Amino acid sequence: MAGHSQFKNIMHRKGRQDAAKARVFAKLAREITVAARSGTPDPAMNSRLRLAIQNARAENMPKDNIERAIRKAAGTDTDTFEAVRYEGYGPGGIAVIVEALTDNRNRTGGAVRAVFTKYNGNLGSTGSVAHMFAHVGEISYPADAGSADAMLEAAIEAGADDVHSDADGHVVFCPFEHLGSVSGALEARLKLAPSTVKVAWKPTLTTPVDEAKAATILKLIAALDEDDDVQSVFSNFEVDAATLARLTAA
Q: Does domain 2-73 have CATH number 2.30.42.10?
């Protein structure tokens, strides 16, 4: 029975992983379609589309899916998606920013509000927490792309502002309006494509929380991320690495 139970657990975990990957692909496809509609469907002439395709490839999204999302932009599909930002507070007073692409503000707003309420948070007005973050470009590279010093030198030469390096890799930060040029210059200098290139909200003021609150915050973020309309979730909670490792080890 133990072996059977273990097999069931493995299959259940695989099912969750497959479902999560499907959600990621769906969100990437939506961003590709919206990016293609915002300009030309040629990534060489459309920086937003180029970045969307790059991030899709980093997630191993099949080429057919990417091409289908681009074709959809030129099709007869009448769905019109708009970018919406929600801001609010989570457990312990931590700040949360949620970015979504939606064709129905009422549906998405109601769903986001319900998640905040369920996990002891509350949705605020636009601008209520954004002042605690910097709107930046974020470019990530694997750890073996180079040493911390070499990456910092390359990033500064490419026009970046800062680099955070640890055992997991390197994250380069730059003004979000220069993301495309910095990413291109860094790739040319390193002769290596980045893992991801995206616009992000980087906390300038963090809020320390204990393990119990951190556990609830992670559930809040996971629930928001499960919404098909939600593209990204950012927060400013701070917890020690050991606690975070315990909470995310499942």
A: no
Rg of the Cα atoms in the chain: 19
Under 8 Å between Cβ of 203 and 236: yes
pLDDT in tens, 170-202: 999 999 999 989 999 999 999 998 998 889 999
Q: How many residues does the chain have?
A: 250
Domains 2-73 and 81-250 share a fold: no
DSSP per-residue codes, 20-70: HHHHHHHHHHHHHHHHHHHS-S-GGG-HHHHHHHHHHHHTT--HHHHHHHH
The structure tokens listed for 8 are 């069931």
81-250 maps to CATH 3.40.190.10: no
241/220 Cα distance (integer angstroms): 19
**Structural tokens at position 192:** 């290596």
Would you tell me how many other CB atoms lie within 10 Å of the CB of residue 1?
Answer: 5
Degrees to nearest 5, angle at CA 140 with 136 and 141? 155
Q: At what angle do helices 47-58 and 63-73 cross, to 10 degrees?
A: 150
Residues lower than pLDDT 70 in the chain: 1-19, 76-79, 250
